[in-house]
Design goal:
By secondary structure, the protein is mainly beta. The chain has one domain: Sandwich (Lipoxygenase-1), CATH 2.60.60.30. Helices cover 4% and strands 41% of the residues. The chain contains one helix and 13 strands; from the N terminus they run βββββββββββββα. The protein has one helix at residues 184-190; strands at 9-10, 16-18, 29-37, 47-54, 60-64, 70-71, 76-78, 92-97, 107-114, 124-132, 138-143, 152-160, 166-175. Strands 1-11-10-3-8-7-6 form a seven-stranded mixed β-sheet, with no helix packed on it. Strands 2-13-12-9-4-5 form a six-stranded antiparallel β-sheet, with helices on one face. A hairpin with a 5-residue loop joins strand 12 (152-160) and strand 13 (166-175). It starts with 8 loop residues before the first strand and ends in a 5-residue tail after the last helix. The model has no long low-confidence stretch (mean pLDDT 81).
Length: 195
């Protein structure tokens, strides 16, 4: 597993990175950011960043998305809905305080869904990135380079390790689904959690 000793990591599909750095305390506050551009031809695309919190049996303990902006007493918070992707930089952001999550949360699955129904082969410059909320340093970036004729994608997951640190895995598995609710069972399956 890759770690953060050399700084920023660009992940490939199904590659994992430990969110620890030798000699440094483990990361506790991170943010997952989603950015994209409107479709070719100028039509607006409404992508939605969401996160599903799972227990070890694959049960979803919470879904944080544009319709439910926080959970676990604010340990997971969503920035709010961006309907177009217009402008540069991050379009939707999910803040996570890993230290405040209950121990029953063993995995967080970050999903992106096309609420307006366009498929990912119509989306330009989509990316997902993980940022240290304390230093504002970008730790991991994943470019959504595969264009698929689907409306949902499980982009990445955070997994709790035995020593209570966390690792991130780039997944980029596509699925039909216009909201995070359509991704719950798929996410548990892809992450290998019992369901």
């Amino acid at each position: 597993m890759v770690n953060l000793d050399k700084g920023h990591v660009s992940l490939q599909k199904r590659q994992a990175v430990s969110l620890t750095k030798s000699g440094a305390p483990p990361l506790t506050r991170i943010r997952m950011a989603l950015g994209w551009d409107p479709a070719r031809g100028g039509r607006d695309i409404d992508l939605d960043a969401s996160v599903i919190a799972y227990d070890r049996t694959g049960k979803d303990l919470a879904k944080v998305w544009y319709a439910h902006l926080q959970d676990f007493g604010g340990a997971i918070r969503h920035s709010g809905d961006n309907l177009t992707g217009a402008g540069e930089g991050d379009d939707e952001v999910i803040h996570v305080d890993l230290s405040q999550l209950p121990p029953t949360v063993v995995a967080l699955a970050f999903t992106i869904n096309s609420y307006s129904g366009q498929t990912f082969n119509q989306v330009a410059r989509a990316f997902c990135r993980l940022v240290d909320d304390y230093s504002n340093a970008e730790l991991v970036r994943y470019e959504l380079s595969e264009n698929k004729n689907e409306t949902g994608v499980l982009m990445a997951a955070l997994r709790r390790q035995a020593d209570n640190t966390w690792s991130m895995e780039a997944i980029a598995e596509f699925h039909k689904g216009r909201t995070v609710k359509d991704m719950v069972g798929f996410g548990a399956q892809v992450l290998g959690l019992r369901r």
